[in-house]
Amino acid sequence: MNRLPRLGVAARARIVAALAAGVTAGGCGSAAPPTPAPPTGTAPSATAAPAPAARPTPSTPLSRPPLAPVTQPAPGSGTAADRAAVETVFRTYLRAVADGDFATACALNAPETNQRLLDELARRGTPAPTCETAIATLYAGSGVAQGAATIADTLSVERVDVDGDAATVAWSVEVSGRQPAVTNALRRVDGQWRLLPTPDPTG
After folding, report:
1. What is the pTM of this model?
2. d(CA 187, CA 137)
3. What's the pLDDT tens digit per position in 4-48?
4. What is the tens place of the pLDDT at every residue in 110-161?
5. 172-187 pLDDT, tens digit each
6. Between 80-99 and 9-26, two packed helices, what is the crossing angle to 10 degrees?
7. Which strand (E) or helix (H) includes residue 182?
8. Which of 5, 30, 61, 190 lies in the 20 to 30 Å Cα band around 179?
């Protein structure tokens, strides 16, 4: 089971932001990106600012050149080609979240990841019609977007393991002077690697 280390709220927020839909959809974690939201089951603070009247809309993506495909993947198990494909999808997802390109981020999620994100928001009483709008809602409500670009730019992929149509990516990034290790799972969907939900850090 993927597990994030116990860190402070601000650190958790930055990592959740980096993982965006994946972290929130999966449950709760303790390092809080990405991509992007308060952990599942966390009650709103009594001093939190009131929610904006209008529902947030997806951000306009920043204009950046696309990431080049990974040619020298991190060590691990499975063929180099599979590991490179997995790492490319993972890095592209994090960059898309950091850039506010939520359409691309959602397209790189497995169907169950997007559905669990929508279900979780509905459970919280803030339903969203699409995955893209859901991530935008999480960003607007959590204030954690600013750390996402740093995570996408500075993360270190330590290991990629592929077993048939399942894969895991072990990675780390410096957060508040610490370097927590995080693991994300992917599965092959119609020949393409897609991200699976990540357990919530508070779970």
Report:
1. 0.71
2. 26
3. 334 343 443 444 444 543 443 433 333 333 333 333 333 333 333
4. 999 999 999 999 999 989 999 999 988 877 755 455 667 778 888 899 999 9
5. 988 777 888 889 999 9
6. 120
7. strand 181-189
8. 61
Whole-angstrom distance, CA of residue 23 vs CA of residue 28: 7
Q: Which domains does the chain have, with CATH numbers?
A: 9-40+68-195 (3.10.450)
CA 27 to chain centroid: 12
End-to-end CA gap in the chain: 11
Greatest C-alpha distance within the chain: 51
Both structure tokens of 6 = 């116990």
Closest by alpha carbon to 23, among 147, 98, 135?
A: 135
Q: What's the CA angle centered on 91, arms 81 and 129, to 5 degrees?
A: 120
Task: Give how far Cα 175 sits from Cα of 30, 153, 158, 178, Å.
Answer: 13, 13, 16, 5
